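pinging the channel bc i need a second pair of eyes. not urgent but kinda urgent?? the chain im working w is below, pasted from the shared doc
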Amino acid sequence: MTRTVQRRLVNGVPMPGWPMRIFKGLVLLVFCAAVIVPFVGVISTSVAPNKQINESGGLVLFPDSVNFNAYKSLFAGGVVTQALFVSVFVTVVGTLLSLTVSCLLAYALARPGFSAGRPILLVVLFSMLFSPGIIPTYLVVKGAGLLDSIWALIVPTMVSAFNVIVLRAFFMNLPNEITESARIDGAGELKTFAYIVMPLSKAVLSVIGLFYAVAYWNAFFSALLYLNDSKLWPLQLVLRTYVINDTQLGSAELGTELLPPQASIQMAILVISIVPILLVYPFLQRHFAKGVLTGAVKG
């Protein structure tokens, strides 16, 4: 009897019985299927044969064969290629600029000797609680001469108040002994920030960088407001235009009989918009773990 009880205890907590384990497993299986099945359907429909897509009504889970006519049609047209380049540029450049500005601002607000830190912090908190609105923001962007410019997708959203608060809290928790030892060795604020603080902040930088990158990659409303030139449209705006408006997209170079159905082209655009983030995330995930371990050994 004692052995049976001991086997069901893990760290002093009794383990549930087999019926409860099976029930939990089934619940997890249902939730996983709810997430995975639509994603599989998107990929399968993008590579399914034209005849099978038309017979199934636009959604295929198990394609009879694989063809990449939808992807060939998209990239042959040139619209998606241009939009993909714009999205990559905005995401990479915007993330780097946002991280730089946010880290400098957060580090300045975290320093105890910064006299203007409290008023600036109140301004940051105020901007997080109260949005300026679409019309005032549009007038500011217009006054800055950023209309029909790719920088209109970066500059207005360069700094996030929430991310600045998170970075400030992390910098305040760093041991003062580290920065004080750097000052004793003759390092100034910028040198301490670049060579001491930044290497210890890899974990939080990875998280905030991912926040900024996903926000830039998924943004389409700024392009809808500020860009009239379709050549500057990011991939998400192209996706919205051709999926919601059900506009035919692609190149007729494949021939009328080989031109994919609209459902196949829409799913292919979805895949193209999702894959870059899925490819980047595993590398960041490993960097998260490394950064957490690096920041854990301190004091």
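so The two ends are 48 Å apart (CA to CA). and The longest helix spans residues 262-296. — does that match what u expected or am i reading it wrong
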